[in-house]
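ok so i was messing around last nite and threw this chain in just to see what happens. nothing serious, just curious
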Amino acid sequence: MSRGLSTLQKTILRMAYVNYAVGLRAADNRDVDVYFHEVLAAFWGWQPASPLRDHTGQFRPGQHFSRDAIGAERYNAAHASLSRAVVRLERRGLVTAHRGYVKWRGIRLTPAGFDAAKDLKQAG
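result:
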C-alpha cells in the first residue's frame, strides 16, 4: 500500500497517524488529522511567525509562516510540493484533503490511509 511513496508523502501519513493515534482530532476539536502548517514546520523545519496553539493549547488555523523570512521562492516551492503530495495521496485513496477559506488546510486519513500509515510507523 505504501510502495512508491515519496519521503514527504510518508511524513504526512506518519504525522497524521500519530496525531490520530494520540487522539488529537478529538482533543483539539480538529476536522483533520494533520494540518498543513504542522507538515511545513516538521518537514522543512520552518519556525512559525505566530504560535501554532492558542492560550488554551488548541491548534490555531491560519497562516503561520513569513514568506519574507523564508524567501518567496522557497516558500512557494514547499507549498507546491505539499499540494502535489496531497493530491497524489488523495488519488491513491489514502487521505481526504480539507480546505479552509481559500486553500487546503489539512488532511484526514481514510481507512486505507490509516492502514498504510500504521504499516509505515511500525516499519520505522
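not much to say yet. The chain has a mean pLDDT of 84.
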